[in-house]
Specification:
- The protein has one domain.
- 75% of the residues lie in helices and 0% in strands.
- The protein contains six helices and no strands.
- It is mainly alpha-helical.
- The radius of gyration is 16 Å and the shape is globular.
Length: 130
């Protein structure tokens, strides 16, 4: 059980820390990030600081125990979009690697989020059954 807790912590915190460093690089205007996002045509639509704020918001929500589910879904969307851009630009799909780590960490943390019934009951949706 202790091994599972350590593994879960690593799989939750490693991608979170990497995303925090990525957000800091966006705030600093790192040349590699500016070059890749300019080549992808993203910079005119989303300034780097805005992307950094979005990234940090997703990570913070994921790390707070009361909001980790919302943070998980936001991270999935953010990293999925980032991965799609990386693939379209023939770059290494780093976002999909991070997304895989997030999924694994979340599964080990609470696998019920991947089960439809548990998800519906946790968000209070009434699906017509009384």
């Amino acid at each position: 059980m202790k091994l599972k807790k350590i593994t879960t912590s690593i799989l939750v915190w490693l991608p979170a820390l990497l995303l925090v460093f990525s957000a800091i690089a966006k705030f600093a205007g790192a040349a590699v990030i500016v070059n890749n996002l300019t080549k992808a045509g993203i910079i005119p639509y989303f300034p780097l600081p805005l992307l950094g704020v979005l990234e940090l918001t997703c990570v913070v929500l994921y790390l707070i125990p009361a909001t980790w589910r919302i943070g998980f879904f936001l991270l999935c969307g953010y990293l999925g979009g980032a991965g799609a851009i990386e693939i379209s630009q023939h770059l290494m799909p780093t976002a999909f690697i991070l997304l895989t780590l997030v999924w694994l960490g979340t599964f080990l943390k609470d696998s019920s989020i991947f089960k439809r019934r548990a998800l519906i009951s946790s968000i209070g949706v009434n699906n017509g059954n009384s």
